[in-house]
Structures
1.
Amino acid sequence: MENKGGREFIWIASVVVVLAIFLGSIAYALRLGYSVASEVSVMPLEKAAGLFQPGVKDLGDGRYQVDIIAFLWGFRPARVELNNPREIILRIYSNDVIHGFQIVGTNVNVMVIPGYIATVIWRPPQNINGTLLVICNEYCGIGHSGMYMEIVIKR
Ligand code: CUA
């Protein structure tokens, strides 16, 4: 009975300790450079045809902007080659239905919603070298399972 206050303190303290560990690990991950590196901006369908041109833009200094259209059922361009990229700005657009854009084996994975540009800023680790498979991971109809593209990284 007389110990009750002490026991409650132990439980309160352990909750505080667990919370500190969780928040601390998030802060540590952010310090290491982990982040949710995606954002979405609006591009109305009627403007997209003129403003959103698929292809690779070399921004210099190892930076590339890659504009991609996801469609039923594929990606345009279907294959992209990048020379020793340091930072890749991926912008993906759909003008039909919801698609996905996942680079297999990496943490790049976004939903592509018609009328919105999904933007991911990706700094591929140095040990990534060769052909990466990109798949659609939102069910988008009969051709969904064959919807893919390739990103080739040359070191
Ligand atoms: Cu596009 Cu599934």
Note: The pocket of dinuclear copper ion is lined by residues 73, 99, 136, 138-140, 144, 147 (CB under 6 Å).
2.
Amino acid sequence: MLKISRLTVEHLAEGCVTDRPDPEVSFRLMSDRKNVTLKQARISVNGWSVKTDSQILIPYRGNKLQPFTEYQVRVEAEDNTGEKAQAETVFETGRMETPWKAEWITDGEYSFTDKKVSPVPMMFRKKFKCIRKVKEAKIYASALGIYELIVNGKKAGDRYFAPGFTSYRHEMQYQVYDVTDMLSGDNTLTAVVSGGWAVGSFVFTRVNRHDADRQAFLAELRITYEDGMQEVIGTDDSWEVTEDGPYRMADIYDGETYDASVDVEKIPWRKAAPEKLRFVPDLRADYSSPVRAHEEMHPVARTKLADGTLIYDFGQNFAGVIKLKIQGKKGQVITVRHAEILNKDGSLNVEFLRTAKATAAYTCRDGQQEYSPRFTYMGFRYASVSGISEENIEVSALALYSDIEKIGGFTCSDEMLNRLQKNIIWSSRSNFVEIPTDCPQRDERMGWTGDIAVFAPTACFNFDISRFIKKWLIDVRAEQLPTGGIPNTVPAQGYGFPATMPAMAVDWWGDACVLVPWAQYMAQGDIQVLKDMYPVMKKYVKACRFWAGFGVGKHRYIWNTPSVLHFGDWVAPDVPKMSQWQKRSKWTATASLYNTSRITAMTADILGEKEDAEYFKKLSDKVADAYVSVFTDGKGKMKEEFQTAYVLPLWFKMFPEDAQKKAAENLAQLAGRSDYCIGTGFPGTPYILFALADNGQEETAFKMLMNTKCPSWLYEVKSGATTIWERWDGLDENGECPISDDGTDMMISYNHYASGAVGAFLYERIAGIQAIEPGYRTFRIRPLAGGGITSARGSTDSPYGKIVSDWKIEEGIFSLDIEVPAGTKCAVTLPDGTTSEYGSGNWHLSCPYNQK
Ligand code: BGC
């Protein structure tokens, strides 16, 4: 029987509220038959319907959608065997540009001028009566700052950090809350607004007031009564405001201070004032994957220091907040600090948090109470609790991250690799908090572009990041410089470029504007993301080409601006100093230009921009030729050898064919000379195993992957890592951090996903799952065994459904079970080289196998 197993609007199976004029519909098919494909489907919405043979992201093209309206979506599908299925869902429109019957309000008497801290949280309040019976009530709200909405004492919605982190002056989100069941006769709407990213201190320079001088709040409650009457209650000067509420301090880095002994009925409230913002926000219904609380984490151990401080170990590094159940006394202060590692004496190591205080301080009222911060988050495995004895407190924690659905999994016969995969997952969760961040703990948590540029393909195997990443790409597009460069952190929030880097194009980091949309397109078949980002890619690559074009002859294609303008082979462990990573920028930048121009050429081709496609293709050819001519002997040997210098041209296929193989041999020898330890920084790490394995050096690739000597992926695992480290040598054999004055200001985080980019190798080579067409409409399964691994299972949900590759080696037989989703085709290659094609369904294959 044919079934529609999933139907989504704007990537959401339910709860979609959108302001888009052309929401996109996708659906998956499931059948108990094999070899099923879609023959035709009809999608109907609002009297409009379209016949299609596509299942992915079909845009609505009917009459203009009306605001505040629920629309039915109906899909009728027929497969190639004549079976039929249908499904329905709904989506709702938001304001669709309806003018607000509300004004931005603030506390007109609050002047916030302090430096490097966040403002005192503001509380707004409105009391009102409903005399009639409420049929439906919805609140539309946003803020400059982070807000929480409380209706009659209960939080509306389960989102953290509303309105979300965007490039506020370009685009802001508002949220929609259905509060029908929360209203009664006498009502109080309360909103707490902290400084957040817009007003609070953010980026490591701790600058504040990026987007506004103080917090501002906007809300509109729209009530429809049973008798048909409508009422709108908007923010205006009839609201009250105070800074004397229980939230005494809230800051992304420093934490939160809460005083539960404050009685909000007894504090002074004054009239709120209308606020004139610095810019007119372009407000759109929340188009993100909002941050929510996911796993509840429980301590695996507790110790007590001599001074009575309790140390809780959660057994897992993550981003989130603690959750306390307390038996307290009025005025008693409980202080919680957070850290990723411990000092030798068992206390928290907070040194690497730099200026981030990462502290939650709670003043009790009498009796049983619960507390969990709402306006901050921390990256931690350990929490210290002082001011209370262990019998009077129960400590757990909530993992907070954007609502990205986990769609992938990788397990194999090697437990250390399984832990590595888990670490990749946890570092993704920890750093997908509103925007793709570098780390969740110290005074950064910024949208560093280079990190996601290299990590995006791995992220796409493990999670459906569609909404999350498309939201961020809107900001990338908005913040592109007129010259074509992309800030190194997006949203830049007053940073974007270090002092050494005038606002220009920066290789690998700026490459995010090319590599991230490309990864999303390949994983999800999302052509719109390419259309949206193409102008940005084009402008960016032209900027890169400009900066590379200063030499003479072939050097016109070598990007050789001073190394301080680049990050180079960032965190390469084979050289000790930051300046040495940067010195490798000649190689990394030139290879980046090759890669971005090649992908931009492919994109232009897909979008029918033939002339552009030719221009960028020619450019990439010239760059490849220059790289090989200038940096190598022409026969596959680098004049100056280091791993990344080989990896990039090998993986990107910049070498002429005969030199390619030789180069892989040279890379393998180089790796052998370092005992198969890793020597790559951000640019080389994602590709080194591919560069080796795809060019006849599988054995070396597996030796590097399975290596447990420092630096290597499994050294971290052996050292007890539960997330991916920023630096390969984050802890030495004695469990101590060896990082000293290397020019990075003690830059070591234990939760940085960048080098977890090796995850793509686990899926694409070991499990062997690889998209041929975007969205896996056709794909390959070609498992690669090695490194003593005797079984592996990789799975990922393509937009068509689940793909599985599950293999084992037993008694000289390699057997493979695969799952191919309806609507797709898979080319399977077994280790004996035989290739065959499979349509949808579950299949079993095998061949003889001699394990080396
Ligand atoms: C961040 C990195 C980032 C880098 C850029 C660091 O401080 O944590 O992940 O990409 O700076 O150089």
Note: Residues 702 and 786 are 6 Å apart (CA to CA).
